[in-house]
Amino acid sequence: MVGARRSNDWGFPRWRSYGSDQAATAQRTCDRHLCDEPGLCPAPKASNSPDRWYFCQKHAAEYNSKWDYFEGLDKAEAEERVKNENRDNAGYAEAAHYGWAGSGDGTRSGDEMRALEALELEADADFDAIKKSFRAKAKEVHPDVKPGDAAAAQEFQKIQVAYEVLKQAEERREWKG
């Protein structure tokens, strides 16, 4: 085996400089006029064209902000292209774990988030805002205020349960040590 030779470039100490046998590699510069930054970001010259511009990050961001995939197409051609893209990527889906979280910052449970929605509050509402919202809603739909109204009674029960869920969660959060 003539081609299989062991390199003499192993072990320590290394007696010659690193990379002495390699020439410097040429780097592509940005295609924007008068820009000397490295052109590391390829961008298409036209829709469905294999030709590429090579921009620095700054000019690539500028180019992408003005890019229109459907430029030069009439409405029917654009719709046809969208239909073909959707047909071709039908086997792919967004990762499911992005949908698991729901709204909020993770400090509240799903039941607490639903209770906040029932009281029409944001995910970061404090307990004083919860009490205030509950009182205002209870005054609107209380069975004494709207006697005989089944929808109001059901809404009152819903906000009452929501308040209880949030109250218990707040009590669990407070340390009474």
How is this structure best summarized?
Helices cover 42% and strands 5% of the residues. The protein has 177 residues and is mainly α. It starts with 40 loop residues before the first strand and ends with a helix.
Write up what this structure looks like:
Helix 4 (110-118) crosses helix 6 (150-173) and helix 5 packs antiparallel against helix 6. This protein has a two-stranded antiparallel sheet. It is mainly alpha-helical and 177 residues long. It has helices at residues 57-65, 75-88, 97-100, 110-118, 127-141, 150-173; strands spanning 41-44, 52-55. Among the domains are: 41-88, no CATH class; 107-173, Helix Hairpins. The radius of gyration is 32 Å and the shape is elongated. It is built from 6 helices and 2 strands. The model has no long low-confidence stretch (mean pLDDT 83). It comes from Allopontixanthobacter sediminis. This is DnaJ domain-containing protein.
Relative strand content: under 5%
CATH architecture of the domain at 107-173: Orthogonal Bundle
Roughly what is the average pLDDT, rounded to an integer?
83
Shape: elongated
Named CATH topology of the domain at 107-173: Helix Hairpins
